[in-house]
Design brief:
The protein is an alpha/beta fold. The protein has 2 domains: 222 residues, 3-Layer(aba) Sandwich (Rossmann fold), CATH 3.40.50.2000; 183 residues, Rossmann fold, CATH 3.40.50. A hairpin with a 6-residue loop joins strand 1 and strand 2. About 15% of the residues have low confidence.
Amino acid sequence: MSCGLPAAPGDPEAALAPAHTGTPPASSGGGAATCARRRRPYFVACRSLPLLACAPPPRRRRSARVAIDRPSGAPPARSARVLLVAPQPFFELRGTPLNVLQMVRTLCAAGYEVHLVTYEVGAAVDVPGLVHHRALRVPGIHSVPIGFSGRKVVLDVALALRVWSLLLTRRFDVVHAVEEAVFFTMPAAKLRGLPVIYDLDSSIPHQLEYSGAVHNRAVLRVVRALERAAIRRADLAITVCQALSDVVRDVDARVPVAQIEDSPMEETLRDPAPGEVAAVRREFGLDGAPLAVYTGNLAPYQGVDLLLAAVPILVGRCPAARVLVVGGEPPQIEAARAALRAQHLDHAVVFAGQQPPERMAGFMAAGDALVSPRRSGLNTPLKLYSYMRAGVPIVATALPTHTQVLDDSTAVLCEPTPDGLGEALARVLADPAAYALRGAAARARVSQRYSREAFARKLVSAYASLLNGKAPRR
């Protein structure tokens, strides 16, 4: 599988140190639990929609939350109860829902009582110990596009009503709000005197700006101000990469930050079965072709347009080369095919469409190179950790979204231009063996720094540090 071309010639973990490790902290006899029992908010509820009938209870000063000392090995009187709010369709196979699923599994396995609140849209998941609350169904909305949309705004309103109802009627020890959920969750949680974790999977104003979803500068200023206010009032910020940790520290260096990078998808932790790689290539007519593989959705921020623009350069250097795109909705795939047909290049790109997670290991191993063509953004793409686990040479644009995790020893980094990407892919596909050491180095790095065990250790440590003797910020 060669193009016939000549071959081209340790970050420390950044999680909070835990005050205690092991069993989640139990609530003391006073604090939020006792207060919640004595002061029930007055409300009127019907089966489908709780309606507030008066102002929330007045703010009161509270003492720091301190875990009760118990003999080693003694079970807690009550597991810490977490309200985790994720403004996402759950479950769907995409970045943030995958991250939320891993957090839920980790916290439940550590003994926390997790109450997850999401949109009504999404498939059911079975996680022992998880209590899943869905927002009200919104008539006519059966799917949620990736990124900002009018549908997402409507679903956020339904989600906010569900969250407010839970905060008024149930007792929690900590509230964990993902992305924009912090804007409607934090005020209600603070009125109840609860500590709030702000989970930044991305910087919302930055995402709105680079995606082109919002062009109005006044709106962006308002969203930026809301994000900064949420950061300042957070008791803990959880980020997925260094760039987002820097965003938090630039706003307020006093806010504790737990940097908890993603880890490979569970389904990609296995090596492909014998014959699986050959079967993938046969299925899509790719036997013997030098092959670059892309996996993921086809949303604009992923840079798939850059990848397609690089195809003429790639094929010009390596006529036998092929690109396999795994993922995407049918209308997106058809639009991409039409654009390639207009350039007489539709033979060079094969679209596999959406595939089940359990096949991802086989698709990645089938490639001579794995490509991540993002041209903007701050957060590291989740797929990158699975790419690294595959041990196949990675070609990625030389932007912070990638270089926070990769460097020249673990990937081929290129300029985010069609020429830069096309030339880099051609070099790797000309002689994949020459870049095999980079693939092996990437696999070693993900095992050392970004394993599922490292993710769990950092998350549990962050929760323990917050709940053991931490007073809520006002």
